[in-house]
Amino acid sequence: MKATETRLFKFLQKSAQFIIPIYQRQYSWTYAQCEQLWNDILRAGSTGLEGHFIGSVVYVERSLYSHSDVPELLVIDGQQRLTSNSLLIAALSHEITKRNEKAEQKIEIDGTNAKKLKNYYLCNAEEDGELYYKLVLTQSDNETLHKIVDGKVDFEEESVHRVEQNYRFFAGKLANLDDDELSHIYKGLQKLIIVDIALDKDKDDPQLIFESLNSTGLALSQADLIRNYVLMKQDIKEQNRLYKNYWFPMEKNFGHGEYSERFNAFMRDFLTLKTGYTPRKDEVYKGFKTYVAKSTDSIQDIVAEVHRYSNYYAAFTLEAESQTSLREAFKDLNSYKVDVAYPLLLEMYNDYDHKVLALDEFVECVRYIESYAFRRLVCWIPTNSMNKTFARFSLGLKKDLYVESFKAKFLLLTGNRRIPLDSEFEHNLQTKDMYNMRSRSYWLRKLENYHHKEPIHVTEYTIEHVMPQNPNLSKAWQEALGENWEEVHETYLHTLGNLTLTGYNSELSDRSFQEKQSMEGGFADSHLRLNKGLAKLDNWDEHAIQQRAKELSKTMLDVWPCPQLDEETLNSYRQPEVQSAYSLEDHPYLNKEPVKTLYEKFKTQVLAMDEDLREEFLKKYVAFKLDTNFVDVVPQASGLRLSLNMKFDEIHDPLKRCRDISGLGRWGNGDVEIKLAAVNELDYVMELVQQALDLQVGE
């Protein structure tokens, strides 16, 4: 590696072409970043500053065997600042040209002119074709940049390309300056300093240098790092093939502007499916490298598989599915953002794609996931257990009895993981505040359109409270509701029975029930099915609200169905309890103080972490497990020796109390050991145990 501090202008004057490899991200600077660059350049040009440092440009020569007189330099790092400054130089050149076209005498800015700016810093003036341009961007940006350099931007047309948008930003800024201020911009550009870092193709590893330069995680997203990791080490031909066939289609699938965020989310779910472990959002790249290192597949096969799963992911997250029934099921599921189920959906879609799961079966299973999420929401069950549920859901599924085993999985969930059965769901539907719950338009749309071949668009309507929200009810309403009208109003205002849809919300307002029925656009005049029953009633009181809630809740049992299996079939899926040959009596230290009390307190806190956890006595240690052991306890005279079932580099141990026992042959599972000798150490130890449990459930 050779690093040299130099002026940006001197760097650009090289007889070379700077090529952004296809594995690099698109140009992505925002207006805010361009504004900062503009301010820095203006300050440098209008003050006595000798120079302004803007960062490094790292590159490697593409080939030592090129026959061109123009060296082709692959830019490993620095494309954003190179591109942004090139856009400003192009805008400055064009602004000088425009002023000269209007002026009687041609102007120069501190000895430069439009032609010099273009030929020195934007073009290789003596070359033709592609070599004419000093900077070559990635596939989707390159054409736009060259149109800008050639002065062919049509300002009458809007642009969706970030490259052109930022060029217009700089052009607009320059147009508002006088000639002296224009000179300040040119002087500021002259003062820009970079570190010119040329890599030795035979001695330097571009990937390692790239990772080091971006180790803070600020410069590139996890998606960018993964793309570079996949493509950088391939030869040019293979880079082009992988990018064209797999990576570019993924970028289009996920949308160029939101590609990184969506790809990161997808890759986390992909890795969760493939490894059983969900990496942290800022460690997706690390997780992917580990997955590749452990895989027996080639990088080409892995990229092809990632691309295939990305199509599945786009089908259900972006509702790009071609099958109508499946697309509608995905749309309803996404209304509740049950993203913890996405790894399961990836597996199901793969089974569907490989004809293991039929279309109607896939739709039915997705509907059960939707019902599970909605029923739990209505029944006030906390959502924080759902990630644990779906992380392990596919374990034990019988793919030859897909739907049956899918139903059994839901029906055998207990406690805070349960799917509310019809009685619980129906009761809560009638009493819950259904107005202030999230995505209320979702359940109203589903209820109104259930078994309807001509669905209505709920967005065209507003929610109407039959009994008005206004606490100062009119005399007519007070009389209709009875002596306890205030209690009725407070109890039932936002409940299912009192809610409907209308296109005449402002007209209905606080009118009496009879007026709301009979007026133009009122309940009797409505074509909405939710209003049919309201049109037939004589009055609206506590009994009427309760009765309507009962009727609607009966329908909602069918809209969000609970899986059904006969008891014999369900029992066939129950896991028989395995009786251990050992017990507490086989561990004498646990029956003596102070270890006895210490263990009881530890056990109580561990089992309280999740209701599905269980304690199992073995010959030499006690295991605490969910699917499998996550912490094992070896009783000792002086306390408890704990083994956490995780790799040592996975533990976050700020007090440095854990020990790496990989390869030591200890009793228990995992590479992390910690001693628990006193009750006052329990809080910290439990934080470590929680990490082991979270790792197992993919939290």
What is this structure's SSE topology?
Blueprint: E1 2-7, H1 8-12, E2 17-19, H2 31-46, E3 52-61, E4 72-77, H3 79-102, H4 114-121, E5 135-136, H5 139-149, H6 162-175, H7 179-190, E6 192-198, H8 206-213, H9 222-232, H10 236-254, H11 259-275, H12 284-294, H13 299-317, H14 324-334, H15 342-353, H16 359-378, H17 386-391, H18 402-411, H19 422-431, H20 440-449, E7 462-465, H21 475-481, H22 485-492, E8 499-502, H23 505-508, H24 513-518, H25 542-559, H26 567-571, H27 595-607, E9 614-617, E10 622-625, E11 629-636, E12 639-644, E13 659-660, E14 672-676, H28 682-697
Parallel strand pairs: 2-4, 2-5, 3-6
Antiparallel strand pairs: 1-6, 3-4, 7-8, 9-10, 10-11, 11-12, 12-14, 13-14
Helix pairs in contact: 2-7, 3-4, 3-6, 5-6, 9-12, 10-11, 10-13, 11-12, 11-13, 11-15, 13-15, 14-16, 16-18, 19-25, 21-22, 27-28
Name a few traits of the molecule.
6-stranded antiparallel beta sheet; 6-stranded mixed beta sheet; 28 helices; 699 residues; globular; 14 strands; 47% helix; single chain; alpha+beta
Q: What can you see in these coordinates?
A:
- There is one protein chain.
- With 699 residues, the protein is of the alpha+beta class.
- It has 28 helices and 14 strands.
- The strands form three sheets. Strands 1-6-3-4-2-5 form a six-stranded mixed beta sheet. Strands 9-10-11-12-14-13 form a six-stranded antiparallel beta sheet, covered by helices on one side.
- Strand 9 and strand 10 form a beta hairpin.
- Helix 10 crosses helix 11 (259-275).
- The radius of gyration is 33 Å and the shape is globular.
- The two termini are 42 Å apart.
- The model has no long low-confidence stretch (mean pLDDT 88).
